[in-house]
Structure formats: structure tokens, C-alpha cells
């Protein structure tokens, strides 16, 4: 693979080598000193795996082009990988890259039932079960739309569902994403650069240069000969790390819980509430990410305020309500939704197969083999339960504030504190803040609603 890359104009390979590390597995080691910020590696445009490269292939491209609507980015890249892997001749360079990729993965879609059960109750557990079904359905569809059409290009025995799952996991765990100046994004696989492991101790140091189409890796910190070189995959929580990359970081500060909020279409006043939810930047079914930094985002409260509206509340709002549920509707509504929230989070916590305390004990006692699937699942469950505990505490505090009367006053839309004086959004007058810092921090969330009002 290195010979092919050098021929294509890659630079930096002579100062780097593949090596096995006890904590991260295979990765890249430096052979010399690097200053932070120094360019370590260039992988040229020609050898990258992108959707465009797949479409430009003289055999695969026409088959992809005739498939309408086009495949998703991940399916295109997965198909491209399987196509190259299946070729008996030609494609020597890309095939040497595929040959260097792992043959199996530890994403949760490959977990045995007993391993997945360790995180029963977590959002990862649910997502994995849904994903299993989704992958099967997607594969069936791909067979009808593409794989089943041309045995020359898609030999059946090289495009099985197991092959498809391998290719998807390859894309999930090795692809890099970049935002382009025009607002589009690009997802690509870069040979050799995809051997770099993740560390949150380095800043993001891999870039895609739009003018050359090349991928660059800079030193995210100073390195001495023999050090492992890292890149940063981003602030990814353990549930996502395990699902996509097959590993976890114990005590991950980015841990989160994906809370699904849904209203049944047959629920009373559904249509009116759906419109209000949309005007508040939400949807009748939406997933809100609860994090350690923000365990109870405003969107959850706003959703529940709307969900709990009754006929008189809706009538009082008039025909064109603006700023739906930015503020509490009434004390009764607020107490109801907060109590409902506390109860719901408690039941979510009760539904975990193994409670937090027990998991902490098991992990401390070495009950799970460190690094194994069950151990990783235990860390995900622990991380999600910790976030839910924080969310429950935040809901209880808000409930207590409403009960004590301080909840009667308008709250800061970001931190939910009730300061002596609030400053209102000058544009829509629909959100109030305790200060400039909260207003700036809330801007991304507020922007969509502000522009609509
Ligand atoms: C982009 S690849 C990196 C190269 C990979 N180790 C290999 O041998 O091909 C991403 C995969 O590396 C592993 N990995 C990356 N960073 C890791 C870390 N900090 N701890 C454990 N495994 C890691 C995971 O298996 C992940 O799916």
C-alpha cells in the first residue's frame, strides 16, 4: 500500500510506520521528532475513496448512475469498497488498502445478545436493535435496486449481507467528514491516514484541502520518535463510539443519552400541536441529546409544554401563536410537565438492565474483561445512566422552583435561572436571557425559531 501511495504523490510515509499499541491496537508510530502543527502526512486526492471517485469508476459508475434515487453516501462508499474487494484483477492499489483493513469489527451490531444485554435500557441498546433491522431492510433494497442486477459487477457471493455489514462498519469507523467552504460536506476514506487512532488530548489536526483535494494530517502535539500519532475523531459520546467505532473511553466527558420525544398521531389535538412543535423548531417525534454539560436542554421542556396543552390553552394562544412554549404556559402546566419529566426519567432509569451502582461495582471488581464487548457495553450503560441522573436532578430543581414561586418568573432560556433582570432577544422578543454569555451560547438553538417569528 505504501508503494502505491508514494507513487501517487503521498508524503510523510518515510517518517511513520504501522505499529501495535497495547491500549489502542494497531496505529501509527513516528520515526522522528515532530513539532506541534508540523505537517505529518499528505494523502493525495487520486487515492481517496469518495462518492465522486465511485461514480467516476468506469464499471461501477454507470451502475450507480442508473440507480435512482441515488444511494446514500455510506451505501455508495460501502458498495465501492465491496466492488474493489471483489475484483480479481486491476485496482491493485485500492485493493492493497482494503487488504490492510480489519476483517472484523466490534461495533454493537456484531455483539452477541448477552453482550448487548449488559447495556439493556440504554439508548444504544434500542438504536442497535433498530439498526439491525434497518441494515437488513437496506440490504434487501440494495439487492433489488443494484446488487441483484449485474452479477459481473456485483458477484453474489461477494455482496452478501455479512459483506455489506463489514463494508458499512469500515465506512463508519474509518471515514473522515469535512465541511466545505460552500456549505456542502464530504465524507472520505484516506488510505494510511485511516490507521490513525483517536485521542482527545490532541486538537483536530486532519484537514481536507478543497483546491488540491488532498488530505493533510498535522501533528496535534509535539511527538518524539516512537510515539503513537493521534488525530481527534471529535467530541463523540461512548454510545456513538461503540456503535460506530467499536470502542469506548471510560469516563468519557461527552457521554450522552438520546431521549426520544414522541406524540401519537391519534392523540387529541395532534395536528395543532404538531404545527406548534414545528414552529418551535421541533417535530412530533424528535430525538434530543441529553449531555453531561446540558442534561436537560430547553427543547425538552418546550416539547412537553406543547404536548401537554389542552383545548383552553390552545384557544388562549389565538390563531397564530408565536414563540410557542418558549415560556411556561401556566403554573399548572409547568408543574405537570416537570412532574411527568421526573417520573419518566425515573422509569427510564428503572428500565436499565443493571443499575448504575451495580455496574460501578462490577467494573471496579473486574467482573468484565477490560476492552471486551461486555465491558464496553457496561461503560455505555454507566455513562447514559449518569446523564439521566443529572437530567432528573435538573427537572427536580425546576419543579422545586415552580413550587416555591420562583418558577412564576420568566427564566433564562439557556441556563433556566431566574435572575432579577432578564434581557430579551432584540429581534423576536421571544427568548429571555440572564446575560450576554447565555444569549450567545443559546444562539444556535434559538436562531431557527427567531428567524421564523
Ligand atoms: C480509523 S481506524 C484507526 C486504525 C485502526 N486501529 C486499525 O487498526 O485499522 C478506527 C478504529 O481504531 C480503533 N481505535 C481508534 N482510536 C482508539 C482508541 N482511542 N482506543 C481504542 N481503539 C481505538 C477502533 O477500533 C476504531 O474503530
Automatic annotation (TrEMBL):
This is SET domain-containing protein. InterPro entries: Rubisco_LSMT_subst-bd (IPR015353), Rubisco_LSMT_subst-bd_sf (IPR036464), SET_dom (IPR001214), SET_dom_sf (IPR046341), SETD3_SETD6_MTase (IPR050600), Znf_MYND (IPR002893). GO terms for biological process: methylation. The keyword Methyltransferase applies. Residues 412-450 form the MYND-type domain. Residues 14-234 form the SET domain. SUPFAM superfamilies: HIT/MYND zinc finger-like, RuBisCo LSMT C-terminal, substrate-binding domain, SET domain. Keywords: Metal-binding, Methyltransferase, S-adenosyl-L-methionine, Transferase, Zinc, Zinc-finger. GO terms for molecular function: protein-lysine N-methyltransferase activity; zinc ion binding. GO terms for cellular component: nucleus. It comes from the Eukaryota.
Amino acid at each position: 500500500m505504501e508503494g502505491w501511495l508514494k507513487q501517487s504523490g503521498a508524503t510523510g510515509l518515510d517518517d511513520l510506520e504501522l505499529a501495535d499499541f497495547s491500549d489502542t491496537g494497531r496505529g501509527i508510530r513516528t520515526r522522528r521528532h515532530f513539532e506541534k502543527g508540523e505537517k505529518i502526512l499528505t494523502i493525495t486526492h487520486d487515492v481517496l475513496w469518495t462518492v465522486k471517485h465511485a461514480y467516476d469508476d468506469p464499471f461501477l459508475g454507470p451502475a450507480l448512475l442508473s440507480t435512482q434515487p441515488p444511494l446514500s453516501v455510506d451505501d455508495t462508499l460501502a458498495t465501492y469498497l465491496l466492488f474493489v474487494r471483489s475484483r480479481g484483477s486491476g485496482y491493485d492499489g485500492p485493493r492493497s488498502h482494503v487488504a490492510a483493513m480489519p476483517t472484523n469489527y466490534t461495533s454493537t451490531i456484531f455483539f452477541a445478545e448477552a453482550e448487548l444485554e449488559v447495556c439493556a435500557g440504554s439508548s444504544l441498546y434500542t438504536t442497535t436493535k433498530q439498526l439491525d433491522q434497518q441494515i437488513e431492510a437496506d440490504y434487501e433494497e440494495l439487492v433489488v435496486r443494484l446488487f441483484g442486477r449485474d452479477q459481473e459487477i456485483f458477484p453474489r457471493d461477494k455482496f452478501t449481507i455479512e459483506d455489506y455489514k463489514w463494508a458499512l462498519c469500515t465506512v463508519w469507523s474509518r471515514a473522515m467528514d469535512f465541511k466545505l467552504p460552500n456549505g456542502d460536506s464530504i465524507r472520505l476514506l484516506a488510505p494510511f491516514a485511516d490507521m490513525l487512532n483517536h485521542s482527545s488530548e490532541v486538537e483536530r489536526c486532519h484537514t481536507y484541502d478543497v483546491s488540491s483535494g488532498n488530505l493533510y494530517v498535522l501533528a496535534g502535539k509535539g511527538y518524539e520518535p516512537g510515539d503513537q500519532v493521534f488525530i481527534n475523531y471529535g467530541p463523540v459520546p461512548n454510545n456513538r463510539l461503540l456503535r460506530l467505532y467499536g470502542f469506548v473511553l471510560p469516563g468519557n466527558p461527552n457521554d450522552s443519552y438520546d431521549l426520544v420525544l414522541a406524540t401519537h398521531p391519534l392523540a387529541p389535538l395532534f395536528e395543532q400541536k404538531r404545527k406548534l412543535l414545528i414552529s418551535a423548531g421541533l417535530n412530533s417525534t424528535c430525538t434530543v441529546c441529553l449531555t453531561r454539560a446540558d442534561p436537560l436542554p430547553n427543547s425538552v421542556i418546550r416539547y412537553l409544554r406543547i404536548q401537554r396543552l389542552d383545548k383552553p390553552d390552545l384557544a388562549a394562544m389565538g390563531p397564530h401563536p408565536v414563540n410557542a412554549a418558549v415560556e411556561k404556559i401556566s403554573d399548572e402546566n409547568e408543574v405537570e410537565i416537570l412532574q411527568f419529566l421526573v417520573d419518566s426519567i425515573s422509569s427510564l432509569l428503572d428500565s436499565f438492565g443493571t443499575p448504575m451502582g451495580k455496574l460501578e461495582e462490577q467494573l471496579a471488581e473486574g467482573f468484565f474483561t477490560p476492552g471486551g464487548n461486555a465491558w464496553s457495553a457496561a461503560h455505555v450503560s454507566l455513562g447514559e445512566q449518569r446523564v439521566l441522573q443529572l437530567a432528573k436532578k435538573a427537572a427536580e430543581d425546576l419543579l422545586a422552583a415552580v413550587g416555591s414561586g420562583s418558577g412564576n418568573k420568566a427564566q433564562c432560556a439557556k441556563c433556566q435561572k431566574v435572575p432579577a433582570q432578564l434581557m430579551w432577544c432584540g429581534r423576536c422578543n421571544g427568548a429571555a436571557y440572564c446575560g450576554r454569555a447565555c444569549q450567545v451560547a443559546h444562539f444556535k438553538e434559538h436562531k431557527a425559531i427567531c428567524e421564523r417569528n
